[in-house]
Automatic annotation (TrEMBL):
Residues 19-103 form the HTH arsR-type domain. This is Winged helix-turn-helix transcriptional regulator. Pfam families: HTH_20. GO terms for molecular function: DNA-binding transcription factor activity. CDD domains: HTH_ARSR. InterPro entries: ArsR-like_HTH, HTH_ArsR_DNA-bd_dom, WH-like_DNA-bd_sf, WH_DNA-bd_sf.
């Protein structure tokens, strides 16, 4: 006899590849991503800024963390400068990470917006599968690890990636900011 039996609904989905997940195992790396999102910095500048934020790390440790993020393709060299007979590297983040939590009251306040979003997304995904279903399924089939796996979750992942990349593109072009500022 079960002491508790409950359906557990999916409330959140996190999509990332295993290398990025591994790179984010350390909270210092998340701080480095945040610092590099808007400003290019050298290892020394990252070290100093981490110190100001209460993270006392050796420069070699900071370099290690930056290299892990670089290997995961989340950070890249933004520019090189000649400096005292050597080369100074400036790093920038190509990944924006949102580590926020919505206020407890947001569920009720955003209920109407959530319904609108769900309806609009359902229509968009319908159009997407109608026009590009073959491509979505082909990519999903490429991803699935064995012949016995269903492709449904892989197709969902592909759609989520498309939505995420479209939001990134809107953010980078300023369109998202423009649209959000008209809501004020």
């Amino acid at each position: 006899m079960a002491l508790l039996e409950s359906d557990v609904p999916i409330r959140e989905v996190v999509t990332t590849d295993p290398e990025k997940a591994k790179a984010l195992e350390n909270d210092v790396r998340a701080k480095i991503l945040d610092m590099l999102a808007d400003t290019e910095m050298t290892i020394e500048e990252i070290h100093d800024e981490l110190g100001r934020r209460g993270e006392e790390k050796a420069e070699t440790t900071v370099r290690h963390h930056v290299n892990v993020l670089k290997d995961a393709d989340m950070v890249e060299i933004a520019r090189l400068e000649e400096a005292g007979g050597g080369t100074r590297k400036y790093y920038g983040s190509n990944t924006r990470m949102f580590s926020y939590e919505l206020p407890a009251s947001s569920g009720d306040r955003l209920a109407s917006a959530r319904r609108t979003t769900t309806e609009e997304l359902a229509a968009l995904i319908g159009t997407l599968t109608e026009k590009h279903g073959t491509e979505l399924e082909a990519v999903a089939r490429e991803m699935k690890p064995c012949e016995y796996c269903e492709t449904q979750h892989y197709e969902e992942f592909v759609v989520r990636e498309l939505l995420d990349r479209a939001l990134v593109e809107l953010g980078e072009t300023g369109t998202l900011d423009d649209l959000l500022s008209t809501a004020d």
